[in-house]
Amino acid sequence: MAHLNQLLENEVFMAFTSYATIILTKMMFMSTATAFYRLKRKVFANPEDYAAFGKEENAKKYLQTDDRVERVRRAHLNDLENIVPFLGIGLLYSLSGPDLSTALLHFRLFVGARIYHTIAYLTPFPQPNRGLAFFVGFGVTFSMAYRLLKSRLYL
Amino acid sequence: MAHLNQLLENEVFMAFTSYATIILTKMMFMSTATAFYRLKRKVFANPEDYAAFGKEENAKKYLQTDDRVERVRRAHLNDLENIVPFLGIGLLYSLSGPDLSTALLHFRLFVGARIYHTIAYLTPFPQPNRGLAFFVGFGVTFSMAYRLLKSRLYL
Amino acid sequence: MAHLNQLLENEVFMAFTSYATIILTKMMFMSTATAFYRLKRKVFANPEDYAAFGKEENAKKYLQTDDRVERVRRAHLNDLENIVPFLGIGLLYSLSGPDLSTALLHFRLFVGARIYHTIAYLTPFPQPNRGLAFFVGFGVTFSMAYRLLKSRLYL
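YS: structure for the whole thing
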């Protein structure tokens, strides 16, 4: 176990652990937001989900798509599309021995940008609020990928 | 290589490796399930996919959406949305030196809940079967996130 | 930090880092491809996105779905569904001490197959081009999962 403790004494890795856990936890709450709006708006994706609410003849009503629910779904999918590269590239970047302050700058910008992206998507704020938040997160991940490939390319 | 072997002698990490591989392999079979139902129901998302089946004039028929196919798609997306946080948080949790029996309890509950979720979604079982399976998996990931942040927060 | 440097002197892990970063960067460009086609075709998912282009009464026109945009979205989602298992299983496989040449074969085939998949999806090439590319990537990930579980199963 000695070297595992050593890994967790590495400050960059500990910082990555904290920020990755925070942003993944935020993403998980998008599922509960979808469930919340589905119940509030009474709009479901599956017949078995509205069984408690009413009879078969109301199927058409309950199976509609709803703007609010679809908006949460899109925000969730956008999270997935952006957080997966951050997780993969960020983990490898953290293990590549970067400067602590540079790494912290990357992690903080990404997490801040994605939280702002969710708020801008769900409120919604006028563009380019959401677009800028997306590009900050995108740029941070791209910058980590560039640093990794520049120093560690092995094909 | 010495310390890599050490990492793989760590029982929590080996257990995480096994359970993560099993649940990811299960998720991969959702792709083949989608392909199976698309071919069986002859319902496709792209014109080039039904080229072997018939002529252009049948496009409308082949490009319909189908309840069965859409159900598998939703189960697959729900897997992605839940397995990505489990992978990220679970990996970091495994490296944080948790108690072996606590870690095994988390991994087994998650994998069991997600397999039950898929069965409940595709059969489908009446609610709240699927909902409960979802919340067990969600709770397990949340519990690992909480333990990580409580012991290792570094912002 | 000694053992972190050791980790990065491990050739399999360095190779995984390079290939995973490349394929995740490729996936990130699917987001920009979607944005490009949305702007070019003037087809948006959210009312706030076309506010700069025109008035409310054109909402119906701007909120249509477009074949080209939906095709990029499907390619992106297919990437997510396949790259997530590769990332998780590939990382654990890299740490399990595999033979360098075997590992390189896996990584190169996967990255090549997924790049070809994207080209075949977006052009589009007639089937079975895309289908074969999908199954090569699927087979590579499955082969890594099998090797992991055969040598490291701990339940």
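YS: worth flagging: Chain A has six helices and no strands.
IM: good catch. Also Chain A has a mean pLDDT of 85.
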